[in-house]
Each structure stands twice: as C-alpha cells, then as structure tokens.
Amino acid sequence: MRCWDCHYCSPSGGPGEYKCTAHHKFGTFDPDCPACSHFASDDAEGDCDMCTYYDSGPYVWNTSGKCTITGRKVNGNSPSCSRYVPD
Fold this sequence. Notes:
Elements: E1 9-11, E2 18-20, E3 54-55, E4 65-67, E5 73-74
Antiparallel strand pairs: 1-2, 3-4, 4-5
C-alpha cells in the first residue's frame, strides 16, 4: 500500500502537495511512498470516540481525548486503529 491510498492523506494546498493528517504535520510528502505504521484504510471500523479505550476527558465535545492503551492524545473523530473495540 502507498500513502496515496491512506485515509490520512489529504491535499496540502499546492499542486501535487499532500499532508498526513494522522500526525498533524503540514509539511509535504510524496504520496507514492510506502504506507507507514499509521496506515488506515477507508473501511476502518469506526471513529476513536466509539472505541472502549477512548477517553474524551471531562467534556463531551473534547476533541483532544486520549487512548487509554497508549496514553497518546487522539482526536475522537480519527478513524479507529487495529486495537478498536466497540464501546
């Protein structure tokens, strides 16, 4: 698989420029690179906020929750990862 096929690949603004929204990086990359470990296909099972391991914090509208398995900050609207367990 290539970055081009990934859910997180999106146009960066300039012609032929792309960014990876999984890492919130705004630099450009070659979409023909091999997919990385954060690759998620468009058929991901759900959003992070529908996962048992997602902790949104004290506010329902908090978009900077965390994954209780890894302790990493994650947006609740992000596609689920391989550890997804329906809530």
